[in-house]
């Protein structure tokens, strides 16, 4: 590793630590991100993206692998990067480093939303049941935050809790129309026999 690459690697590691501290991420996520950044430095990958974007994308891989429901927007916001750039960096990391795309269960995102907007434990439980049901019927593969927001909205409505689609969409960082469309699909699937 050249002196320039080593300097860039050290800056990226400092960004990993800073972002991890801001988001209160556990040490195993930071260690995984550090290992990814080391691999990136060894193949001169870090020159394609800013240090902040690389650190954010590496932490995103670590979060997904450890089943932590943070979004690209969360990590980009903590680093001051553009979420689209972090997303491109994330996809390049997966491709260039031959990392299998870590899948995160959609019901984990319900908990993430609940932290942003307090709802009852019964609504959370019902929302997770809705997700399990619709994923088993084939609605998986959609943006997990949209699915979590729509299921939480439906669960809150069923529990008599006053939540709007706009509120859950904002908490999820997705469009209100996406939540509305997903709610329609969930309701259609709910009518189908198992």
Primary descriptors:
Cyclin A, domain 1, 194 residues, 2 domains, elongated, mainly alpha
The total tally of domains equals 2
The proportion of residues in beta strands is under 5%
| H/E element sequence | HHHHHHHHHH
Shape: elongated
CATH class category of the largest domain: Mainly Alpha
Number of strands: 0
**Count of alpha and pi helical runs:** 10
How would you name the oligomeric state of the polypeptide chains in this document?
Answer: single chain
Largest sheet: none
Mean pLDDT: 84
Structural class: mainly alpha
Poorly predicted regions are none
CATH architectural group of the largest domain: Orthogonal Bundle
According to CATH, the fold-level topology of the largest domain is Cyclin A, domain 1
Radius of gyration: 19 Å
How far apart lie the N and C ends? 57 Å
CATH superfamily of the largest domain: Cyclin-like
Percentage of residues assigned to helices: over 70%
Short description:
With 194 residues, the protein is mostly helical.
Summarize the structure in words.
- The chain starts with a helix and ends with a helix.
- It folds into two domains: 3-96, Orthogonal Bundle (Cyclin A, domain 1), CATH 1.10.472; 106-191, Cyclin-like (Cyclin A, domain 1, Orthogonal Bundle).
- By secondary structure, it is mostly helical.
- The chain is built from ten helices and no strands.
- The protein has helices spanning 3-22, 27-42, 51-65, 72-79, 83-96, 106-116, 121-136, 144-158, 165-172, 176-191.
């Amino acid at each position: 590793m050249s002196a320039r690459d080593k300097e860039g690697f050290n800056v990226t590691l400092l960004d990993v630590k800073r972002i991890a501290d801001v988001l209160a991420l556990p040490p195993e996520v930071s260690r995984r991100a550090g290992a990814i950044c080391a691999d990136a430095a060894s193949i001169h990958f870090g020159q394609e993206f800013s240090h902040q974007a690389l650190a954010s994308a590496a932490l995103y891989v670590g979060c997904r692998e450890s089943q932590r429901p943070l979004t690209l927007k969360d990590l980009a916001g903590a680093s001051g990067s553009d979420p689209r750039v972090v997303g491109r960096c994330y996809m390049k990391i997966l491709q260039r480093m031959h990392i299998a795309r870590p899948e995160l269960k959609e019901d984990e995102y319900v908990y993430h939303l609940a932290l942003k907007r307090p709802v009852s434990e019964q609504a959370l439980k019902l929302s997770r049941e809705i997700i399990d049901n619709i994923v088993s019927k084939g609605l998986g593969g959609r943006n997990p935050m949209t699915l979590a927001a729509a299921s939480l909205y439906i669960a809150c409505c069923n529990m008599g809790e006053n939540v709007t689609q706009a509120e859950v969409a904002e908490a999820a960082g997705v469009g209100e129309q996406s939540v509305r469309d997903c709610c329609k699909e969930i309701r259609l699937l709910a009518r189908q026999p198992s």
